[in-house]
Task: inverse folding
């Protein structure tokens, strides 16, 4: 199978898994504190990746550690910020803004290392910027809630895409990244002392969110190792489509017409950047 086609396939699996996981984690964050949910999601991913690495007998590459630690820190920032954005505002608005922002950084890196992007990608950039502007336009004097967190989430995810691409392994680097995310988010949660951790009946939702988030990480890494980083990152950044559809179906979220157009343009921008 063509390497780029394989990268697109893994990227789509990553997008589906990440989008559903983000919705589950965001839903849990509305019932418990986002810091607490991020800790448990990271712990679930660490457990899964460690078990898979041991079962597979994967070779451990010491040179992967530094990149995995940096990727884990950036991913933790992205996930925590996304949950905060979901808690503060609408999932259907925050997810596409984070998706476009996260897709731009790896493409810019790819342009620096491998040349300028094509015409469709440049069109996608312009469409994405317009989409983010429309989605984030204030209604009167009110700025959409959670926008700053959504932008910060995108920067965190973009950093994760660029950094985890440098590793050679699969499960061990992912486990190290999750261990880093767990350590950072746990320390921050203990410092902030969240008012409420998920209750027993909410743990299955958090566990499912953690498993889906881990699946998204795994499929992205497989996509990045199969083809170009920018292709893998942009296709994986289609994850807001899953989040938006679930938020519409489950939470009955409604956006203003301009915001809805901005969301559609943001999703279209990701598709154009990928096609380019």
Result:
């Amino acid at each position: 199978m063509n390497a780029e086609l394989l990268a697109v396939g893994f990227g789509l699996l990553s997008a589906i898994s990440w989008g559903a996981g983000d919705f589950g984690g965001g839903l849990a964050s509305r019932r418990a504190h986002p810091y607490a949910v991020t800790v448990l999601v990271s712990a679930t991913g660490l457990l899964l990746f460690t078990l898979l690495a041991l079962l597979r007998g994967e070779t451990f590459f010491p040179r992967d550690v530094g990149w995995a630690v940096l990727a884990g820190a950036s991913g933790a920032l992205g996930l925590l910020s996304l949950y905060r954005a979901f808690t503060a505002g609408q999932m259907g608005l925050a997810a596409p803004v984070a998706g476009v922002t996260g897709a731009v950084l790896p493409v810019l890196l790819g342009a620096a290392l491998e040349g300028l992007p094509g015409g469709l990608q440049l069109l996608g950039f312009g469409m994405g910027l317009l989409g983010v502007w429309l989605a984030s336009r204030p209604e009167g004097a009110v700025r959409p809630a959670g926008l700053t967190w959504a932008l910060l989430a995108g920067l965190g995810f973009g950093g994760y895409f660029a950094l985890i691409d440098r590793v050679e392994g699969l499960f061990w680097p992912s486990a190290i990244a999750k261990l880093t995310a767990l350590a950072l988010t746990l320390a921050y949660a203990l410092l902030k002392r969240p008012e409420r951790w998920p209750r027993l009946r909410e743990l299955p939702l958090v566990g499912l969110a953690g498993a889906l988030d881990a699946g998204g990480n795994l499929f992205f890494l497989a996509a990045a190792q199969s083809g170009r980083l920018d292709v893998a990152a942009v296709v994986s950044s289609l994850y807001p489509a899953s989040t938006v559809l679930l938020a519409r179906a489950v939470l009955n979220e409604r956006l203003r017409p301009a915001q809805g157009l901005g969301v559609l343009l943001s999703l279209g921008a990701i598709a154009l950047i990928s096609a380019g």
User: Anything to note?
Assistant: The chain has one domain: 3-193+205-275. Residues 3-193+205-275 form one domain. The chain has a mean pLDDT of 80. The two ends are 20 Å apart (CA to CA).
